[in-house]
Every structure is written in C-alpha cells, then in structure tokens.
Amino acid sequence: MARGRRAAPPAPIPPPMHDAPTLDAYQGDLLDFAAAPGTGVDDAAVRFRPDGWLLVRDGRIDAVRDADDPPDASWRRHDWRGHLLLPGFIDCHVHAPQLDVIASYGTELLDWLQRYTFPAEARWADTEHARRSARRFVRQLLAHGTTAAMVFPTVHRAGVDALFDAAAEHGMALVAGRVLMDRNCPDALRDDAAAAERDSVALIERWHGRGRAAYALTPRFAATSSDAQLALCGELLRAYAGAHGGLYLQTHLAESRAEVDWIRALHPQARSYLDVYARAGLLGARSVFAHAIWLGAADRAQLAATGCAVAFSPSSNLFLGSGLFDWATTAAAGVSIAVASDVGGGTSLCQLRSAADAYKVLALQGQRLSAWRALYAVTRGAARALRRDAEIGHFDPGATADFVVWSWAADELQQHRVALARSLHERVFAWLTLADQRNVAAVHVAGRRVALDAPPRDD
Ligand code: GUN
Ligand code: ZN
Q: pTM of the full predicted structure?
C-alpha cells in the first residue's frame, strides 16, 4: 500500500482571463441560512433579502446587501428581481450511470440492482459510453440546479476519470470514487483485490484535492464488498488521513429490510449492519451513509459520535418501497442529515423534488419538515455533511459563488398558489412543493453562468 503519499495541492479557482477583477452584482430575492434552522417556521437562521444584492468578485461572494444599498457603477448589474436566488443545491448521494435506469418499473432494491442497475453499470466498460454518460449526468445535475455532488460512478477506472473530467469542465465541486465490489455481483463488475487497490491509489493521487475534486472510497455496500475489501478502504482512509483533510467514504446502509437480513447472514459476527463498517474503520467525519433507515439507537449514537453524515434519499425510498427514514429520531441522536436524490432509485435529479418527498415521508410518520429545514438540508446542511461548508452552501463572504436563480412560478398554478401566501414560510413551502426544473432560470458555478443549452450533437 502506498502509505502517506500526498495528492497534488488544490488548484485555486481559475483566475479571470484579464487583470481587472470581475465584479458582478445580482439583484433578486436572496435566501440562505446562517446556521441550522430549528423546527419552527419562524427562524432566526433564515436570511431573506427581497430584491437584495449578491456581490460576486472573481468567482467568490464578496458581500450581500439590502435592496436600498446598491453597489457602485464598477459592478456589472444582473437584474433578477422577481426571482429567487439560492445557493446551488448539493446532492450528497447520486449515481452517475443510473440515468439509464431511472424510472424502472416494478421491483425492489435487491432485484432492481440485478435486473436494471448492474447491466447499466457494466456498459461503462466502454470508455466512450462512459464519457458521454458522465457529461450528460453533469449537465443534467446543473440543469436541475445542483452545483455540487457526491457521486457513485462505476467500477471502471476510466469512467471515474470521465466523471471528474466532466465536472472539471464546469469548474464544479465533485466528490466521487471508483465503486468497489468483489462479490455478489456480475463477473463483469467484480473486482480483483490487486486492481481495486491499484486503481484506487492511482485515482486518489490523480484527483483528490485537484481543483474542486475530492476522492471518496466507494465500497458499494456490505453485500458486495468482502471484509478484506472493506479493510482495504479502512487502510486507505488512514494512509491518506493528512491529504487535503482526508479522503471521503461513501456507501449504502440499512436501506431495505431484505438487505438488512442479507447483511446479517453475510456478517454474522457483526453487532449490526453499521458495525460491519465500524469494524473496518470506516466511520468518521468524512463518511456519508446513504439511507440509514433500519437502524437501532446504538447505531444512531455511533454515527453521531463518529461525526458521520447520512444521506436521506426520500424519492428513492418511496420508489423502491424501502422504508420511511425517521428524521426526528436521527436528528435527536445528533446525526447530521443531508437530503439526496439517489437517482436512479430516486426519480428526479431536482433537489426540490427530493425536499418535497422528504416532507411526505415525514408526514407519514406524524413528523413535520419545514421549508427551512428542507432547504438547509440541500444547501448549507449538505455542505456541512461534506465538510465543505467553508466553501459552499451559503452566501457568506468568501464562499465560492455557486448559486442558482429560480423563478417563483413556472406556470399558472404555481403563480396562483405562491401569490396567495400570507407569510414567507408559506410562500417558500408552496414554492418548493410545486416547483421543479422548469423554474431554473440561471445556474452559476464559481461565478460563471453555465450554458444550459441543448447538448452537443455527439452526446
Ligand atoms: N445499495 C447498493 N447499491 C445501491 C444502488 O445503486 N442504489 C440504491 N438505492 N441502493 C443500493
Ligand atoms: Zn444509492
């Protein structure tokens, strides 16, 4: 094992092509969060500035000002009055190759993997296909208002490069890593131990800390990784602990009951599903576990104590019939929660759809998810889960200017409902429940507007 090696130092945001600073002032209804909101609908953590000014200097937030405090003439003005400006959404759990299987009929998790997902992922062995798919995936994330993500590609090393390349083309923050699987999967996707280690080390060296990329060790889940492969992940986490804050770890945890039963049979020595990962040394402040539905109190306490985050994926949990995530109990245990799409188990890349589905999952359990908590969980809260909240997820001065301009209404119904709202929370809640990709007006990554036009012909 290549211990203690260091990836390349992070590249700064590319400087502008000319010497003078680029000064852009965006005027619109600015909304972000100073901190985690509480459970109520009136919350001091909410920062709403109608017709406010978002000042962006060379790709970073310079300042936020009220409507009556405009910048001087040196700032180029962009008039988005009547629109909502939010930090770009962050999706902490999504699968790049699964745009091919999104909305696949009639099955549950374990059969869905075999029937739809593994065949789609095997097609990434063709590097040209992987490149086209990766570029389409990144384009679609951005087109849905998501400007940063933690992503599963496939087991193919060239596909991981393709994904990081596609994100880098847009200057987008991306956390990803080669998927690791050495059992209970088709031969075409199965690792041999040497290749898994060699590829992971090569990819870490290439990508971790390069520009806005970071590397995540990505054992798919405890059913498809042997103890030896999970142990390799633990060793790599330790070996690179000092490199750019350390590597990430992403995997799935306690998603469906059948899956949990299977893990118990495969790992009889473990106290619980989470314990399989704990024994391999995979729990830490940069570990993100998708789903985390079927857990006990000891597991939640352990997740909190080790600083792990969970990626609640409501659209996927409903679509695959996996179960209802217990937000109140998980939050009360002190676990940090991000809301994620989990496409293609989830049925939309739009994080507003994830947030609206999250509300419904909680409603089924007699819980309430305010618009503030929902939006926090796809912006600053998700950034916190990824330990990147110094950089993204809000409009604090110094943050990278990843932000999205949304229309308040994309159709007559939205217009009608939003106009009737009597409070800010009512308005934003109605908006997030009804809005979708049609509401995206403009997307900015590091201060640069993304062209959301038709895809190139060869894609
Ligand atoms: N568990 C293991 N792999 C997957 C996957 O691709 N999607 C979901 N939703 N769960 C998984
Ligand atoms: Zn997943």
A: 0.95
